[in-house]
């Protein structure tokens, strides 16, 4: 199942610099692992924003939920999830 996910990041300005750097480093490592596992198939920066647009390929909404909750930055994310279905005009569907 494919899910379009937007993550808007809002790390509090008063969070200690070391903690902020640690969160970003661990988030990157987790994102790379999930990409290598084939779960996080697209990761794009939204131009001009501290946000990303991602596509996840997971077995279920429950799996996506667990992945999102496991992200180190999760407490500082506003997450918007859109389930994706095949479009009949997609070339791959012809
Ligand atoms: O910077 C972001 O958009 C948040 C994030 C997701 C994966 C990652 O490495 O950073």
UniProtKB/TrEMBL annotation:
Keywords: Aromatic hydrocarbons catabolism, Isomerase. The keyword Isomerase applies. It catalyses: (S)-muconolactone = (4,5-dihydro-5-oxofuran-2-yl)-acetate. Residues 1-90 form the Muconolactone isomerase domain. GO terms for biological process: beta-ketoadipate pathway. One of its GO terms (molecular function) is muconolactone delta-isomerase activity. Pathway: Aromatic compound metabolism; beta-ketoadipate pathway; 5-oxo-4,5-dihydro-2-furylacetate from catechol: step 3/3. Its EC number is 5.3.3.4. Transmembrane segments: none annotated. InterPro entries: Dimeric_a/b-barrel (IPR011008), MLI_dom (IPR026029), Muconolactone_d_Isoase (IPR003464). Homodecamer. Belongs to the muconolactone Delta-isomerase family. This is Muconolactone Delta-isomerase. It comes from Amycolatopsis alkalitolerans.
């Amino acid at each position: 199942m494919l899910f379009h996910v937007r993550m808007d990041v809002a790390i509090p300005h008063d969070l200690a610099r070391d903690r902020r750097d640690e969160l970003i480093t661990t988030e990157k490592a987790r994102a790379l692992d999930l990409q290598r596992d084939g779960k996080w198939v697209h990761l794009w920066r939204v131009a001009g924003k501290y946000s990303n647009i991602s596509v996840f390929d997971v077995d279920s909404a429950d799996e996506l939920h667990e992945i999102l909750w496991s992200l180190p930055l999760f407490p500082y994310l506003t997450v918007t999830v859109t389930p994706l279905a095949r479009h009949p005009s997609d070339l791959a569907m012809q």
